[in-house]
TrEMBL record:
Protein name: LuxR family transcriptional regulator
Location of 4-aspartylphosphate modifications: D61
Organism of provenance: Micromonospora rosaria
Positions of the HTH luxR-type domain: 159-224
Any GO BP: phosphorelay signal transduction system
InterPro entries associated with the record: CheY-like_superfamily, NreC/VraR/RcsB-like_REC, Sig_transdc_resp-reg_C-effctor, Sig_transdc_resp-reg_receiver, Tscrpt_reg_LuxR_C, WalR-like
The keyword Phosphoprotein is annotated on this UniProt entry: yes
PROSITE patterns referenced in this protein's UniProt entry, alphabetically: HTH_LUXR_1, HTH_LUXR_2, RESPONSE_REGULATORY
């Protein structure tokens, strides 16, 4: 007996430019497994519509009136928990480390530039909906390494997150996740099935009190499990 169909991925668009939102809607709604459930023209609307529509993924612009996208992301990721908490994908025209750094601190699960392809956007939505994290590849390792060395509470603080809680296999999985390996690559490296790897990743995240793979990467850097360039 097969499991119930989870239904389409529900997406909320947040951007102060109507034409940009329309373009994103056209790209996403062509896909049979994606549904746009709302549009917000500023950060305050994004927060309110997130609570009202319960999306799986929020596409968030950075620079918006009334409330910027980073503040809105912080409100969304900090104010909702469990199944009600969507993944936030930051989309911006600016390839700036400070934006990516701030997006990670705000709790975003992904970061892409608006000059990417429609295929990259669709893939990013699906990746985040699965509970994975996604970052534009160019600045990722440099900024995550800086992020991990920065001040402020570490990722996982307040959850009792301890490396000692992990089994040896879960720690191996954490290291590979921190190096950017996909489930398929982890499976090949450890000679495991992808379903088994997915289970290990889920258990590792749960034990460490982390939301997704992006937080796992940051946690690994903060705890010295992996070093920049390692």
């Amino acid at each position: 007996m097969t499991g119930a169909d989870p239904g389409p991925v529900r997406v909320l668009l947040a951007d102060d430019h109507h034409l940009v939102r329309t373009g994103f809607r056209v790209i996403l709604e062509v896909e049979p497994d994606i549904q746009v459930v709302g549009e917000a023209a500023d950060g305050e609307q994004a927060v309110a519509l997130t609570r009202a529509t319960a999306p799986d993924v929020v596409l968030m612009d950075v620079e918006m009136p009334r409330m910027d996208g980073l503040t809105a992301t912080r409100e969304i990721t900090g104010g909702l928990t469990g199944a009600a908490a969507p993944a936030v994908l930051i989309l911006t025209t600016f390839d700036r480390d400070d934006y990516l750094f701030a997006a990670l601190r705000a709790g975003a699960s992904g970061f892409l530039l608006k000059n990417g392809t429609p295929e990259a956007l669709v893939d990013a939505v699906r990746v985040l909906a699965r509970g994975d994290g996604l970052l534009a590849p160019e600045p990722t390792r440099r900024v995550i390494a800086t992020f991990a060395r920065s001040g402020g509470p570490p990722v996982g603080a307040g959850t009792g997150a301890k490396l000692a809680d992990l089994t040896p296999r879960e720690r191996e999985v954490l290291v590979l996740v921190a190096r950017g390996a996909s489930n398929a690559e982890i499976a090949a490296t450890l000679t495991l099935g992808e379903a088994t790897v997915k289970t290990h990743v889920s258990r590792m995240l749960a034990k460490l009190g982390l939301r997704d793979r992006v937080q796992a990467v940051i946690f690994a850097y903060e705890q010295g499990v992996i070093q920049p360039g390692g």
